Amino acid sequence: MALHGHSHRAGIRFTFRRSGTTNSTAATTADHAAAASATALAHTLAGLRVLTASTFLWAFFDKTFGWGYATHSGKGWIDGGSPTKGFLSSVAAGPMESTFHDWAGDTWADWLFMLGLLGIGLALAGGIALRLAAVGGTVLMGLMWAAEWPPARHLSDGTYSASSNPLIDYHVLYAAVLITLAVACAGRTWGLGRMWERLPFVSRNGWLK
Which residues of the chain have pLDDT under 50? Predict the structure, then answer.
C-alpha cells in the first residue's frame, strides 16, 4: 500500500515538471517567432523606404538633367526648362485649375517642387527626419492629387477624365506609405535613423525624428 502511494506521488511530480518544461519551450518558440517576425517586418519597411526614396530621387534627377523619360533630353531644369510648367499648365479639372495655371513655371514653384523632391528623397534614403518627410510629402502629394482631381468624371473641355477612382489614387498611396514609414521608424534599419535620433537637437525636438 505504501509502495503504491509513493509511486502515485512520484507520478504527480513528474507530470508537473513535464508540463512546465513544455510551457517554457512553447514560450521560447513563440518569442523566437515574434522576434523573427519583427525583424522581417523591419527589413520589409526598410526596403519599402529605399524604393520610395528612389522614386522621389529619380523624379528629381530626371527633371533636373532631362534623362529622356518624363523630361525630354535638353528640356531639363539645368537646361532652362521648368519642372512645373508642363504639368501645372495642363491641369484641366478641379477647383484649383486656374490657380495651378497661374503657378505653372513660376520660379518659386519650380524651386519648392524640386527641393521637395530632393529633400524627401534624401531623407528617405538616409532614414532620417522621416516625420518631416511624411508631412512634406503628404502636402506635395495632396497638391498633385488636387491638380489631377480624380473626383472629376469630365475635364473642363467636356471630355472624359478617365479617372479610375474618385478618391484613392497613387498620390494617396504615396502619402500613406510616407506616414507608415515615419510611424514605424523605418530609418532605424538599413539607415541612419538611430544615429539621427541620438543627436541632441533631434532628441529635444521629437518632430525632427
Answer: 1-16
The DSSP bridge partners found for residue 178 are none
Q: Is 142 helix (H, G, I), strand (E, B) or coil?
A: helix
8 Å CB contact between 123 and 137: no
Q: For residues 173 and 26, is the Cβ–Cβ distance under 8 A?
A: no
Q: Please choose, from the candidates 150, 13, 169, the residue with its C-alpha nearest in 3D space to the C-alpha of residue 91.
A: 150
Query: Distance between CA atoms of 16 and 22, rounded to whole angstroms?
Result: 10
- Give the span between the Cα atoms of 117 and 12, in whole angstroms: 69
| Alpha-helical runs (H) found in 66-192 | 85-89, 97-103, 107-126, 130-148, 170-183
Contact 176, 137 (CB under 8 A): no
Q: pTM to 2 decimals?
A: 0.85
Amino acid making up residue 66: G
pLDDT in tens, 72-82: 999 999 999 99
C-alpha cell at 18: 513535464
- Cell (9 digits) for 2: 505504501
C-alpha cell at 49: 523606404
Choose among 171, 191, 175, 168: nearest CA to 45.
191
Helix, strand, coil percent content, the chain, rounded in steps of 5: 70, 0, 30
